Structures are given as structure tokens and as C-alpha cells.
Amino acid sequence: MLTRSSQAIPQITNDFNSLPDVGWYGSAYLLTCSSFQLLFGKFYTFWAVKTVLLSSVLLFEVGSIVCGAAPSSVAFIVGRAISGMGAAGVFSGTIACIVHAVPLKNRPRLQGLFGAIFGVASVVGPLIGGVFTSKVTWRWCFYINAPIGGVAMVIIALCLEVPDQDTTKVALTKKLSQLDVIGNTFLMPGVVCLLLALQWGGQIYAWNSGRVIALLAIASVFLVAFVVVQILLPKTATVPPHIAKQRSIIAGFLATIFLGSSQYIFVYFLPIWFQAINGASAVDSGIRLLPLMMAMVLASISGGIIVQKTGHYTPTAIVGSSIMSIGAGLLITLQVDTENGKWIGYQILYGFGMGLCSQGPNIAAQTVLPTEDVSIGIALMFFATLLGAAVFVSVGQNVLDNQLVHRLSGLPGFEPSLITEGGATSFLNSLPASLRQASLIDYNEALRNVFQIGLIMSCLATLSFAMLEWKSVKKAEADKGAQSNFVVAE
């Protein structure tokens, strides 16, 4: 829903006269989705998977309906926050269903398909959002979730069979005592403060402003306190130390942060390159991103099949992230006059590599962790994706703004407010025709600096993937089965 709603935001601000609130339309969703991600890992450990997943879908639907029916900007923001909470549970729940219902050796292909569906949704979402906004009303970007979610809930309720785990059969008081109230009291405000600082810093307030510094300081204190609580109270920890210290979990967490950072840098800023440098429309820039997304879809499915056949996920992850890094390196060579064939080919290379390695961390968590800990491991990986995206899209935006101000400050009549208060391309139209070619070159160089961040993140992802243990999903499943039989025999 995040990609579909992005096309509707300009019209929403027009209807509500709420341009100052525009940052909250995406942030409210991201804040709650990130903050509740790890908590849902606990929910899926101690409650029935089907129950938690149905509740998450329902919560997401309620948020969507609130957004669609919102009479004001504040109500819309509340709806976005509710949807984010539900989405946190849906992300982890989808993988939890696969974990509990499908043997480990058969999961890679299914997870590859899951990644492919996510890629298709990322492409189709903005196009659907643009059609609804221009042809009907932006409210249908959110209302449409109601019938889709309703069908999904019926299918889940009637068709999904997930066996209850031993941890779901304990008393309610015991379950509640395991929710790490103290840890989450520090984690959620810490994540919120961190993301708010990143959303506001350099955009709404200066990085050295009291508000941003205070938010970063509070976030640091709260997140350090969360880590301390996890160490001192391991029995109820949201992320127990025995999970956090596992080599493949550390490597997968880092790889997912870097992978998410690189992916969102290019998916977010390539459309800006198409619009600002090539003069494409918003919808056309989304279409021009199809080579990347379609390559990712194909590679995600192919990667799942390869892992399922060979049993090993580490080689595929390393090869995929290496190809992704090569594609990222080529994308930073884009110029004002780059031919269509080149930016199409570069995207295909980048997207194919990204698709090959994208499911590696999730498969690693399922392979190295006991079944009862997998939900927490999966939630940790989704949290890393959201964290990387939130941090580095903000970093990329600040780099772009600072580079543009630095490079264009010598132009006659140029004011920094044209960058900070204008749109991604609108300030170009305010420049005299004689200066536009030079400004396009400067804009291109500024975007190349942003793309360099994506390249660095891709290379760091490759190094992180190299730290993964070389384990086989086939052997791991056999070992877990033997261990279970031993416990039963005792």
C-alpha cells in the first residue's frame, strides 16, 4: 500500500490543504510498521499463527478504511499508522505460515515466489494508484484493500492449516509475561525518535537544530537501554542473546540492512533521474523502472529454485549481491545523454542480482535457528529491511539536496529555497532556458553521488553475505527432524 498511495499524496494534500503534513503520510506508516515488527515476532512465537495473521490483516484493513473515509489530514495520518501496525504482522506472518506449513527443503522456491510477488506489487502499485487518483478518486487507493483483504481473510480462515506449537499452549499469563514489556518500552520510542530525526533532519529542521539533536540523543539512549535489557533479561527478551549472537543471524541482519538500503536508494531515486534528466512524467518514470523490477521478479523465482535444488543459499546470495554491485556500479555512470539501451541494461543487471540474493537472510534464519525461534529471526530481518530503507532514503535525500545547493548556488537568481521547498523537478522549470542544460548536468552529478551510496551498500551486502555459514537446508531439516525424534523418544 505504501507504493500505491505515493501517487495519491499530491491530490490528498490538495483536498485537505495539508502540504505541511505530507511527510507524515509516509512516516506514520513506516514508524508503526518498524516499531511493531519485532513485537510481532513474539506474537507468532506464543500465539497461533493463523489467529495473529488474521488479526494483522484485519488491523491493516481497518487502517485502510480509515484512510479512505478520512475527513481530515489528521484522520488520514491515524489510518496510516493503524495500517502500518497491521502490515508489520502481515510481513512476518506470511513467512511464519511457510515455516510452519512447509518443510524447510521446499521453502526456498516458495519464498522466491513471495519475493517475486512483492516485486510485481512494487511496480503495479504506483500504476494502480495513478489510475485511481486521476480517473476516480484517491480514496479508492485505500478502499480497494477492503475486498482484497476480505477475500484473503476468508482463504486464511478456511484453507490455512498451521499446527500449533508447544509455545502456543502455555497459559495466557505466561504468554503475557514473555512479551518483554520493559524492552519494548525502550525499543518503540527509540525507533520512533530515530526515524523522526531522519525524516525531519535537513528537510523540515536543520541537522544541528535542537529538535533533531534531542531526537537522536533520546533514540541513542533508548536503543542502548533496549540492548541492555535484552542482555540482563534473556528469558523474556524480544531478541534473545542466543539468537542475536548467532553468526548467520548477525550476517543476515547486516546484509538485509545494506540490501534494503541499496534497493530503496535506486528504486526511490531512479524515477527522479528519469523525471529530472529525461523529462519523463511521474507515471512514465514508474514504467521505466520495469526492467529492474521484472529482472528482480525473474531472479527471485530462479534463486528460490536454485537453492531448493542445491540446498545451499550462501553461494546464491554472494553471486547475486556481486551482480547487484556490478549493476550499481554501472548505474552511477549515467549521464544526461545516456542511451535508453544502457539504462535498461544496467537496471536489468542490478535487479537480477538483487532478486537472486534477496531471500538469503530469511532462508538463513530458518536454517540455523530452532523452529520456535524462527519467527523472531524473520521479524529481525524485516526490521532490518525497514531500518535500512528509512535511514538511507533520508541520507540520500539529504545528499541530493546538499549537492544541488552546492552545485547550483553559482547560477544567477538561484535560491536554496528552490530546492528545499520545491519539487524534485519543478525548480528546473523556474530557471532561464539558457541555464537549463548546465543545471541538468549538475543535477545528474548530484544524483550520481546519491547512487554511489547505493553502490557502497551493495558492496557491503556482498561482504555480509560472505559471512553467512555454508549450511544446507536439506541437511538442516534432517538434523532438526532427528533432534525432534530424540526428544520424543526421551
Structure, described:
The protein is an all-alpha fold and 490 residues long. Helix content is 80%, strand content 0%. It folds into 3 domains: 1-174, MFS general substrate transporter like domains (Growth Hormone, Chain: A, Up-down Bundle), CATH 1.20.1250; 181-232; 239-490, Growth Hormone, Chain: A, CATH 1.20.1250. α13 runs parallel beside α19 (371-408). It is globular. The chain crosses the membrane at residues 22-40, 52-71, 77-101, 113-134, 140-160, 181-200, 212-233, 253-274, 286-306, 313-332, 376-395, 450-470. Its main location: membrane. This is Major facilitator superfamily (MFS) profile domain-containing protein. Keywords: Membrane, Transmembrane, Transmembrane helix.
Short description, anyone?
One of its GO terms (cellular component) is plasma membrane. By secondary structure, the protein is mostly helical.
List the helices and strands and how they pair.
Blueprint: H1 2-6, H2 9-16, H3 22-46, H4 49-69, H5 73-101, H6 107-135, H7 140-143, H8 145-159, H9 172-177, H10 181-200, H11 210-232, H12 241-244, H13 247-278, H14 282-287, H15 290-310, H16 314-331, H17 340-357, H18 360-368, H19 371-408, H20 417-420, H21 426-429, H22 433-466, H23 473-489
Helix pairs in contact: 3-5, 3-10, 3-19, 4-5, 4-8, 5-19, 6-15, 10-11, 13-18, 13-19, 13-22, 15-17, 16-17, 16-22, 18-19, 19-22
CATH homologous superfamily designation of the largest domain: MFS general substrate transporter like domains
Query: pLDDT average, as an integer?
Result: 83
Biggest β-sheet description:
none
Helix vs. strand class: mainly alpha
Reading the helices and strands in chain order gives: HHHHHHHHHHHHHHHHHHHHHHH
For the termini, the CA-CA separation is 49 Å
Assign a percent range to the helix content: over 70%
Protein name: Major facilitator superfamily (MFS) profile domain-containing protein
Subcellular location: Membrane
Pfam families: MFS_1
GO molecular function: transmembrane transporter activity
